[in-house]
Amino acid sequence: MNRNRLTHFPRLPDVPAPVQATVRRTTVFSDVDPMGYVWFGRYPLILEGAVDALNKQIGLSYAELAADCVINPVAELKINYLLPIHLGTETETTACLVWTEATKLQYEVVIRSADGVHAVAWATNLFVDSKTGEVYLYDPPCFSSCREKWKSGAFRCLQQTNG
Q1: 26, 103 contact by CB (below 8 A)
Q2: Which residue from 85, 136, 153, 154 could staple onto 38, CB 3.0 to 4.6 Å apart?
């Protein structure tokens, strides 16, 4: 298995290219352990910053989900820790949402700095009715709207050029 690979989910033919967003941050004192490295439990918080930025741009912010009585819990998260991040390191975290026909979100996230790739992660989020706790078997309205915009090219400026 190649721990350095940056993609995880299959790219389907004849569907829209993945969309992505990048956020920048500097590692702060509360991120690091006594050895001066980012504590492994902080990585999901760093990843969420980029996922949140992407979701806001495509109409799936927490507020938009809540308006549809939808929550979007993580069902699966895999992180490959490749290179430690030190206190004061400036990083770029890029979240990529890969198209799937299923009613779920598939994210690939990469944390980079001038030193190289620090971590790659893959997450799958489901849609759950916030009132009943039941998993959606079909797209909730906010995700249907997102898919329509994605298909129509409204997110072209967010799409990967290299697939």
Answers
A1: no
A2: 85
Structure tokens at 143: 């995700």
Q: Rounded distance, CA 118 to CA 34, Å?
A: 19
Q: How many CA atoms lie within 13 A of 154 on its CB side?
A: 11
Between the CA of residue 97 and those of 108, 148, 153, what are the distances in Å? 7, 15, 15
Q: Which residue has the tokens 């989910």?
A: 9
- Going along the chain from its start, the domains and CATH numbers come out as 19-152 (3.10.129.10)
Report the alpha-carbon distance of residue 68 to residue 103 in Å, rounded: 15
Residues 6+ positions from 92 with CB-CB distance below 8 Å: 22, 23, 24, 111, 112, 113
pLDDT at 102: 95
Distance separating alpha carbons of residues 86 and 37, to the nearest angstrom: 5
- Mean pLDDT, consecutive 10-residue stretches, the chain (163 aa), reads 75 90 96 94 96 96 95 96 96 97 96 97 97 96 95 89 52
